[in-house]
Amino acid sequence: MSKSISPVEYGLEKIFEEAEDFLPLLGTDYVELYVGNAKQSAHYYQTAFGFQPLAYSGLETGSKDRTSYVLQQDKIRLVLTTPLKIDSPIQAHLKKHGDGVKVIALWVEDARQAYEATVSRGAKSFFEPQEESDEHGSVVRAGIHTYGDTVHVFVERRHYKGLFLPGYRAWNPSYRPSPIGLKYVDHMVGNVGWGEMNQWVKWYEDVMGFVNFLSFDDKQIHTEYSALMSKVMSNGNGRIKFPINEPAKGKKKSQIEEYLDFYEGPGVQHIAVATNDILSTVKALQERGVEFLPPPPQSYYDAIPERLGAHNHMIKEDIKELQKLSVLVDADEEGYLLQIFTKPIQDRPTLFFEIIQRMGARGFGAGNFKALFESIEREQAQRGTL
Ligand code: FE2
Q: How far is the CA of 146 from the centre of ligand 1 (A)?
């Protein structure tokens, strides 16, 4: 693959102006995963990823059907929820999908308005606006369905001073491994079924007022064996970015198809989290046992100067240091980015994490797609799913 595609070439600023402001979004509020054992998952996210314990809800707080642990690292909030009863819808979700992302919660000024604006434009309701309160104030939330069984929950917390949400209490264990420099959710990627990408692109445009600011077809995203297509959707202020992938035909099975088979349908493929210092963050993750995709071949690093051409001079990091940790690099007119991808974080080959450091570039590492997908294919081959 040749050089990266720059948002500037796509007239990004102009495109953002076209985004509609009927749904002002302040940022990602939290990401909720349904997991088989929230207590143990919480330990993993603390130990391996350096998330800090924040809040808890369960039998002791009057929650009879579920337990949730809330963890935080800078602006990233993860909620890990597990069902306590057989007849819980969370149980059905787990049975079908395994561990995975259920809720991408979006922080808004006015949750009722966000709900009305999106439902009137065709969103399917998940739950109507509801106000919850405790001694710290009140929070209004409302939810809509997006692809698969995934939902968006709008969270209005301007009248709330508590730790997380009403119904939660402080979670204060003595065990607190240190943070590793994760800052905020950069983007979250959804995998959808064959021929469904454009449907969901249109849904994010019509229902959420998002714009499509980058597109990659299967001619750009392919290896010798497999292919996929991807379109990146963004809200007007650029804080929320959702690339949407669909599988494409290749000689062998697309990684997106493998995901769809094991997740039993569309869902969140990866959560990209930003750091200001990818070298120290990745070193810490490796020491704490997080597994990354196999490194690209030596030829990937040898080819960096030629691939980045005139942009090569921007790279401040020593390429040898990047290679030691298998970090990938890409650049465009605006700057460069460094990124690396974990292996799936549960036994099904579904959800994984991306660690990204943006040094001005606003793309998604298109120049790395080929190396990345070849790494994934080596893993797929071992799983017998290529
Ligand atoms: Fe990504």
A: 19
User: For the chain, how many structural domains are there in total?
Assistant: 2
CATH, residue 369: 3.10.180.10
Amino acid 325 reads: L
Question: Which residue, chain included where needed, has tokens 């007849």?
Answer: 87
Burial class (CB in 10 A: 0-12, 13-18, 19+), 135: exposed
| Domain membership flag for residue 15 | no
Q: What is the mean pLDDT of the chain?
A: 92
Ligand 1 mean position to 362 CA, how many Å?
A: 11
Distance 157 CA to ligand 1 centre (A): 28
Query: What are the tens digits of pLDDT across the range 225-263?
Result: 778 889 999 998 889 999 999 998 888 888 999 999 999
Distance from the alpha carbon of residue 241 to the mean position of ligand 1, in angstroms: 10
Q: What is the pLDDT of residue 251?
A: 83
The answer to whether residues 276 and 368 belong to one domain is yes
Question: Which of 137, 165, 157, 218 minimizes the C-alpha distance to 56?
Answer: 165
Say if CB 317 and CB 275 are below 8 A apart.
no
Rounded Cα distance between 184 and 313, Å, is 27
3-state class (DSSP) for residue 283: helix
